[in-house]
Design brief:
The chain has 237 residues and is of the alpha+beta class. 29% of the residues lie in helices and 15% in strands. The chain is elongated, with a radius of gyration of 21 Å.
């Protein structure tokens, strides 16, 4: 005996209700998986950094010149992504680690194909030698200081104004390229994971929520911010 029209409509309605309930759960599960994959990338980068430091007297990958460019013409790495090449040379062979699974875009690094569409940035103050933060022991607060973070349009993270993101929410552009790690999309600044995944200088990684980004910086020497990018800054909660 077949279904009546009413019974079919009831079944269809039940299926539609279940789909409406379950679809957001599936979407959330997929987002969580990408966020977890991103944190895994940062942790692998942490292991590579520690191996690099072990071979280089505890120093971070870095350069004494600004901006860093490869001296090898066969490896025309984009400016400010030199740290990627330094880790790939010996300490991290999986290129996909540098691409966040949730990123909408990325910074295209140079070097031999395949290209890396970089989804992360390194703290500029730890990479460039002239700032004086060559090793973790030089950092006043490594537990609060950014080492690597989700990032857009650039391979470096800083806390000063440089471009069009400077006016967003009263934060400097360097912080906004981390807070809005997927950049500008259809006229809106996009947050990547409902927050930003950050690897801190003490090598723990976690998500920092958008409303946790703050800064009070009347001068370079007097600065409160969170997360801490300028290593001498005081954590600002």
């Amino acid at each position: 005996m077949g279904f009546t029209l009413i019974e079919l409509l009831v079944v269809i309605a039940i299926i539609a209700i279940l789909a409406a309930i379950l679809f957001p759960v599936f979407v959330k599960s997929k987002e969580n998986a990408k966020r977890t994959g991103c944190l895994s990338n940062l942790k692998q980068m942490s292991v590579a950094i520690q191996a690099y430091q072990g071979d280089n007297n505890g120093q971070y990958p870095g350069s004494g010149t600004y901006p860093w460019a490869s001296p090898d013409p066969r490896e025309p790495w984009a400016q400010h992504t030199g740290w990627v090449k330094m880790l790939l040379d010996k300490h991290l062979k999986n290129r996909s680690v540098f691409e966040c699974p949730a990123q909408l875009n990325g910074v295209r690094t140079g070097g031999r194909a395949p290209w890396i569409h970089l989804g992360y940035g390194m703290n500029e103050y730890l990479f460039y030698r002239h700032y004086g933060f060559l090793v973790e022991g030089n950092l006043p607060r490594p537990r609060h200081t950014v080492l690597f973070a989700d990032c857009n349009r650039h391979g470096m993270v800083h806390d000063w104004n440089a471009d069009l993101q400077a006016s967003e929410d009263g934060l400097p552009s360097g912080m906004n390229r981390v807070r809005y790690a997927d950049g500008l999309y259809k006229g809106q600044w996009r947050i990547r994971h409902s927050g930003t995944n950050i690897l801190f200088a003490d090598h723990h990684a976690r998500i920092v929520l958008p409303d946790q980004f703050k800064i009070d910086k009347p001068t370079q020497s007097i600065c409160k911010e969170y997360p801490v990018i300028w290593p001498n800054a005081i954590p600002y909660y």
